[in-house]
Design brief:
The protein is built from 16 helices and 19 strands. The protein is α/β, with parallel strands linked by helices and about 550 residues long. The protein folds into two domains: about 240 residues, Response regulator (Rossmann fold, 3-Layer(aba) Sandwich); about 170 residues, Response regulator (Rossmann fold). The strands form four sheets. An eight-stranded mixed sheet has the order 1-2-3-5-4-6-7-10, sandwiched between helices. The chain has a seven-stranded mixed sheet with strand order 12-11-13-14-15-18-19. Strand 4, helix 3 and strand 5 form a beta-alpha-beta unit. Helix 3 runs parallel beside helix 15, helix 4 runs parallel beside helix 5 and helix 13 runs antiparallel to helix 14. The protein is globular and about 105 Å long.
């Protein structure tokens, strides 16, 4: 073979080897994907999707498809994108059902926000899975930042956020640093909030952040105000708190510690340490010791700063130890809204005792409850008629009760309309755990802000800055009628004097106990002012 041919063949072989090597390297470097745009990281499907993907969680398949169909419906109309950021995978059935409740609220809120003729922009909804405990939020935030810059996606707000964790705070901080408006629908930790200064001057740690539920501090004040002397009598109260690093738990413990109490001192705070949000570890052993120590005190009201899994174990241990037939009330925060779903028939029986009387009652500040407005209106009318000897007129009824009831009526009608239309949401929405109501309120609030700032041609969508500035305008005349109460946002994006629904797990009924609404608690100790006009100096 001539020398030049040998040289040519050598070059050809080398080129083929390089090509094969490059393609092989490229193949090996390609991310392992669960779905288009969704990467598999540490066994979880992390990413953003609005086309009906369920992230490997069958419980949310139907509602994810319903959201995708709503997105297709408004595809040719002026619209923007809103992302719902929540962990969307779990090996626990109860948590997967909670995800479904959250997304049912998101879908119903999207439909409500997209109703109406000539009211652009419509909302295209996408689901953003940051992984368990928001561990992979950074990758998801990267995607959302690109979507905000994209003329095709036009991301204008991120909502959801159901756990007050350091990783959640990091996600919210990075989003707001890039001026992406965030509306947190379910986080109550005090750290993920802007501070309202005197005369409405806010200190914005998170520019463009709004929240629609009270902080743990506000909720603790509402609970103390609701319980009156019992919740503030020092010798009768004790704090039990988790020492594991957790923003929600830390702020709840601080809030309970800050309740102004009266009388001689009671028992010192009693700590325990859990391994994780959804792991029991040795907490049962620790709770047995704590329950025995409480028995030797005069305390009968326990402020519990911990997550739902550990709250359940503690309540059962307190009932099991038994303390001279004493009845205990455990008071906790908004995370306890998931407790009822975790209770078994055996659990209820243990809280009840052999004589059928409740040994332990769990009370917590729920962000909402479907029975709140009818119950409170009935009680208000009874007091009014006793004082005035006549029925009140429609104008005399308090708007802080009538407007949320009207909002809840609209939601229930929408649920029925959805059912009649044959839209499968995976199950009938259950409003008692407040999840569907809160996420729905979040989407309605975002829709209100988008419609308020929209001007000019229909296809000229609001900017990120437009939406972020609008949060503080949603008060007074522009208050949002939420199913969870009137949403009136301060200059810091916080809900002013938003009520909490005080609910109790009552085990006294035979079989499965009940979750009952017992009243409204107000952070300021009184109802919101007329028309929700926020005072110049907020507490």
């Amino acid at each position: 073979m001539p020398r030049w041919k040998k040289f040519l063949y050598t070059l050809l072989v080398a080129a083929v080897a390089v090509a094969v090597g490059w393609f092989g390297w490229s193949f090996l470097q390609r991310p392992d994907t669960c779905h288009k745009g969704v990467e598999r990281i540490d066994g979880e499907c992390i990413g953003v999707d609005g086309a009906g993907y369920d992230f490997g969680t069958p419980e949310i398949s139907a509602v994810a498809r319903a959201i995708a169909r709503q997105n297709e419906k408004i595809e040719g109309q002026p619209h923007v994108t809103v992302a719902v950021m929540l962990p969307l995978q779990s090996d626990q059935v109860a948590l997967r059902r909670q995800m479904r409740s959250d997304l049912q609220g998101a879908y119903l809120g999207q439909v409500e926000a997209n109703e109406g003729e000539g009211e652009p922009p419509k909302i295209r909804l996408v689901l953003a899975n940051p992984g368990r405990d928001y561990a992979h939020q950074s990758a998801v935030v990267d995607t959302l930042l690109r979507m905000a810059d994209s003329s095709e996606d036009r991301l204008r707000a991120v909502t959801g956020f159901n756990l007050s964790l350091d990783s959640t705070e990091q996600a919210v901080r990075r989003l707001t640093e890039h001026r992406i408006p965030v509306l947190a629908s379910r986080i109550s930790g005090d750290r993920i909030a802007n501070e309202d200064g005197p005369d409405g001057m806010a200190k914005s740690r998170f520019p463009g952040l709004a929240r629609i539920i009270p902080t743990n501090y506000d909720a603790s004040q509402a609970l103390a105000n609701f319980n009156g002397e019992r919740g503030r009598e020092n010798r009768r109260t004790v704090l039990v708190h988790d020492t594991r690093q957790d923003s929600y738990v830390e702020s709840l413990a601080k809030a309970f510690s800050g309740i102004e109490e009266k009388g001689p001192p009671g028992p010192a705070a009693m700590p325990f340490e859990s391994p994780a949000i959804d792991e029991a570890g040795s907490t049962g052993n620790q709770f047995t010791q704590i329950a025995n120590n409480i028995c030797d005190s005069q305390a009968d009201t326990v402020y519990f700063a911990g997550r739902t899994l550990h709250l359940r174990i503690f309540a059962l241990k307190l009932a099991e130890v038994g303390c001279d037939d004493r009845h205990y009330t455990i008071i906790s925060g908004s995370d306890a809204a998931s407790l009822q779903q975790a209770m078994t028939d055996k659990d209820w029986a243990q809280l009840r005792g052999a004589d059928g009387e409740a040994k332990v009652t769990v009370q917590y500040a729920a962000p909402a409850h479907p029975d709140a407005w009818t119950t409170e209106l009935t009680a208000w009318k009874t007091r009014w008629e006793a004082a005035h000897h006549r029925e009140p007129t429609a104008d005399e009824l308090p708007q802080y009760l009538t407007e949320p009831k009207a909002a809840l009526d609209r939601l229930e009608k929408l649920i029925e309309t959805t059912r009649r239309a044959g839209t499968d949401l995976g199950s009938a929405p259950d409003l008692t755990d407040s999840r569907t109501m809160l996420v729905y309120d979040g989407l309605v609030t975002i829709g209100t802000a988008l419609h308020q700032v929209q001007s000019g041609a229909a296809r000229t969508v609001p900017t990120l800055a437009d939406v972020g500035r609008e949060w503080s305008q949603l008060q007074s005349r522009h208050r949002v009628q939420g199913t969870s109460g009137l949403i009136c946002l301060t200059s810091g994006g916080n809900p002013y004097d938003k009520p909490v629904a005080v609910v109790e797990l009552d085990p006294s009924q035979k079989g499965r106990g009940t979750l009952k609404f017992v009243g409204l608690g107000w952070p300021t100790g009184r109802a919101q002012p007329e028309n929700c006009v926020i005072p110049s100096s907020t507490p």
